[in-house]
Specification:
Blueprint: H1 3-20, E1 32-40, E2 44-46, H2 54-59, E3 66-78, E4 83-94, E5 104-116, E6 122-131
């Protein structure tokens, strides 16, 4: 696969994950490898084995979908022929839990690792968000 095509494939997959998270957390599950590790600000690390697990959080009724997002400063680095790291800056907004409050916006540096699974499809196996402020 050509480098340009590969880069666009990984960018498109990452973009799709933000798009599906505008609907629900559960919509993200098909994009994740079974052994996916996710690390979020304030020391939250989720895997299939943590309590709560990645799946528990994404299926939770407490999950708040994203209202909007914007990715910029995107870099894709191939890792062998079957993987890639994508890093970028994101500005994302969620609707406030309390309707009296303003929407919650954050800015973070994000990094995801995608690898090809045995079905020949790329799945996210790692994701991290680091707040910029």
């Amino acid at each position: 696969m050509a480098t340009r095509e590969f880069r666009h494939l990984i960018e498109d997959l990452e973009e799709e994950t933000w798009q599906v998270l505008q609907r629900s957390g559960a919509a993200m599950i098909p994009y994740l490898a079974n052994d996916c590790v996710m690390q979020f600000p304030l020391g939250m690390k989720l895997t299939r084995d943590t309590v709560p697990s990645v799946q528990d959080i994404l299926h939770s009724s407490a999950f708040v979908p994203w209202k909007s997002y914007r990715m910029s400063k995107i870099d894709v680095t191939p890792v062998g022929k079957d993987g890639a790291v994508i890093s970028y800056l994101v500005q994302a907004t969620r609707v406030a839990a309390d309707p009296k409050d303003e929407d919650v916006t954050f800015e973070a540096l994000c990094c995801s690792v995608w690898r090809m699974n045995e079905d020949g499809k790329f799945k996210m196996c790692f994701h991290q968000q680091s707040l910029t402020t």
